[in-house]
Design goal:
This protein has about 450 residues and is an alpha/beta fold. Helices cover about 40% and strands about 15% of the residues. The strands form four sheets. The chain has a seven-stranded parallel beta sheet, with helices on both faces. β4, α5 and β5 form a beta-alpha-beta unit.
């Protein structure tokens, strides 16, 4: 059994989206000869930093008995935001978050004892938060341990909003390059994201970048065919969506507005890629729903959202006169969420539009949806999410740029009376047992 130091700022029981990938690796690593020694935030610090996330102690039931977890308090982050000027300086002149910087003193005060006790042979660090990278490098250098960086998201080319200037992008890119050069292996979640990293850092050996996808936990146990019954007139047809959309109207406005129309302090904003996150929101889905309801009043559609409700969501629904069709369930523990999802008839999937390129995100929530054996309704652009839905055998693609056609497809999905043929061979690749086995193999490969 190889001991591995696993640095995961986001970890159970604080139920952030980012905690699940790490939690499931820890659940299965021992099956493949890896004993993870987890270093994470203490619960009080994590629930303060990730204030939107619930503390869900049932998540800890996934951990094998005797799992070593060191929960280390984080220093006070509020010192970086004591007033508006300090807040501006912190945000404007930073290339990454401040979490690991505030946490590093506590970690380094404890790390020698952890190393002496467990004698790890490698380090695995998961990002974001992106500040985790510099802390992991520091520990790797101090104790001469090989390092694997697990990139759950893009970094320098993840553009919810533009950078303050080209220099902001450049310094972030340089931080990313420095981290990747130091790492022995960089894993990430889709082929598309691995290609972006390879293209962005073509002087780094492309073999360093490996794909270890997200996945599903339980046994899918699909039948060869899934028969979808015909819709009963006026029966409520429930389409569900879980989690965040990552769409911020102000960020999109800054991204899409030409520089000559911006205020002076924003004219130097820069983005290495142009990503339209309105496509990640339910905007185009709402447009199609409105068209379906106008064309076929016999259909009764209910749209249920689970997760934190952004302030733009209700006005967006109201824009299409769909507010009465929407139900907002709020953030809930995972077990409760799965119970609510079982009542859904179908699940909505969306993706960002990358202008002139393809989207690299395959949302982890998609794998939760699979377990319910219900149709996936993909209002998705070219990229990872679209390819997965197409290949799954239980999904339908609705082009957000062709609402008329998408409304027709959506209506057919709701009316039912069709058969879905799950691509079991394809879907089996995403079992978390298999993804944990792959990452375990990579960890063993870097041990000196």
């Amino acid at each position: 059994m190889i001991n591995v130091l696993f640095i995961a700022i986001e970890f159970a029981p604080v139920s952030t989206t980012g905690n699940f990938r790490s939690l499931k690796f820890v659940k299965y690593f021992r099956d493949f000869g890896i004993n993870p020694i987890v270093i994470t935030l203490d619960v009080d610090s994590a629930s303060r930093i990730f204030a939107y996330a619930k503390v869900d102690y049932t998540l800890l039931e996934d951990l094998p008995e005797g799992t070593n977890i060191y929960r280390i308090p984080c220093g006070d982050l509020s010192k970086y935001y004591t007033n508006n000027i300090r807040r501006f300086l912190t945000i404007y002149f930073s290339t990454k978050d401040k979490i690991a910087e505030a946490w590093e003193k506590g970690v380094m005060n404890n790390i020698q004892g952890i190393i002496d006790k467990h004698k790890p042979e490698a380090i695995l660090a998961t990002l974001p938060p992106f500040s985790t990278g510099s802390l992991a490098v520091n520990i790797s250098k101090t104790f001469n341990l090989p390092l694997i960086i697990d990139m759950r998201d893009g970094w320098s080319k993840w553009c919810l909003a533009p950078y303050g200037s080209w220099l902001h992008y450049y310094f972030t890119y340089r931080e990313e390059k420095k981290l990747f050069k130091r790492a022995d292996v960089i894993t990430t979640v889709t082929d598309q994201l691995a290609d972006i990293f390879r293209d962005s850092h073509n002087e780094i050996n492309s073999d360093k970048f490996k794909v270890v996808t997200n996945g599903y936990d339980e046994n899918l146990s699909f039948e060869d065919k899934i028969e979808v019954q015909a819709y009963q007139e006026n029966k409520e047809y429930v389409i569900g969506y879980t989690g965040a959309f990552y769409y911020y109207p102000k960020g999109r406005r800054d991204m899409m507005l030409p520089w000559w129309k911006k205020r002076f302090h924003r004219i130097f904003q820069y983005s290495p890629v142009k990503e339209d996150w309105l496509y990640r929101s339910p905007y185009y889905f709402f447009k199609a729903v409105r068209m379906v309801l106008d064309n076929n009043p016999r259909i009764n559609i209910k749209i249920k959202f689970i997760g934190e409700k952004p302030d733009w969501l209700e006005p967006m629904a109201a824009e299409f006169s769909l507010l009465e069709n929407c139900q907002f369930g709020g953030v809930m523990p995972r077990n409760q969420m799965l119970k609510v999802q079982r009542s859904f008839d179908a699940f909505l999937c969306t993706s960002v539009k990358v202008i002139g390129n393809y989207d690299y995100v395959l949302a982890s929530k998609t794998f939760d949806y699979l377990l319910l054996h219900k149709p996936l309704i993909g209002f998705v652009t070219e990229g990872a999410q679209r390819e997965f839905i197409q290949d799954s055998g239980i999904g339908f693609i609705c082009d957000p740029d062709n609402i008329s056609e998408s409304a027709q497809i959506l209506e057919k999905i709701i009316l039912g009376n069709y058969t879905m043929t799950p691509n079991i061979e394809f879907l089996s690749k995403f079992s978390r047992l298999k993804t944990a086995e792959k990452l375990a193999g990579l960890l063993k490969s870097v041990v000196r």
